Automatic annotation (TrEMBL):
InterPro entries: MnmC-like_methylTransf, SAM-dependent_MTases_sf, tRNA_MNMC2. This is tRNA 5-methylaminomethyl-2-thiouridine biosynthesis bifunctional protein MnmC. Pfam families: Methyltransf_30 (PF05430). Gene3D superfamilies: Vaccinia Virus protein VP39 (3.40.50.150). Residues 143-228 form the MnmC-like methyltransferase domain. It comes from the Bacteria. GO terms for molecular function: oxidoreductase activity, acting on the CH-NH group of donors; tRNA (5-methylaminomethyl-2-thiouridylate)(34)-methyltransferase activity.
Amino acid sequence: MSKNSLKREIKTTKDGSKTLFISDLNENYHSQHGALQEAKHVFIKNGLNLINNYEINILELGFGTGLNVLVTINEYLKTDKNHIINYFSLEKYPISEFEINDLAYFELFDNPEFKNMYQKIHTSDWGKPIEIIKGFNLTKIQCDFFELKTINLPKINLVYYDCFGARVQPDLWEKPLFEMVSDKMDVNGLLTTYSSKGSVRRILEELNFKVEKKQGPPGKREMINAIKL
């Protein structure tokens, strides 16, 4: 049974932001301790804010609800916007229009323009780059993560490794996929993930990453940052 055929329901997390929950797998798309807090902590504080390139190429596995795109745009808008972000996001099972509308993530941000941006993010065609706002380009790619090696991408500076947990999809936390991701990354590129599994740390070290354990988001003691050497 594919994850797209499994029933998903919307739940509210402890910080008031919503997430999707797959009851058959007992798996949330985001932390039940706070979807928004987790995204900001793992992918902004310990991801985007550590990259100083003029042009930043981001690879996300996977697109899911689109929350990570929104928090990235929100952070980009805080800067003087004199740089460029090219955001590439992989997703095998896009969520439905009903789920998009019910999640209503634009309500989490004060900027009234976020409603239009939220719709633009979700209604844009898969496989085609689109400028969400000036200097921020999004390309959504509908594919299995293991098709990554066949996808033509620029050298990636930052990876948001946001797959379902290893309990549900153990193959996404094993060496073959990390090797594909590494092959797409530039030297000194950063991979950030909510996971802190010892097996993941060892795999990344085998692939010539410098791995650092960081304080985790609410509800998690630790997470991983890994720099490609």
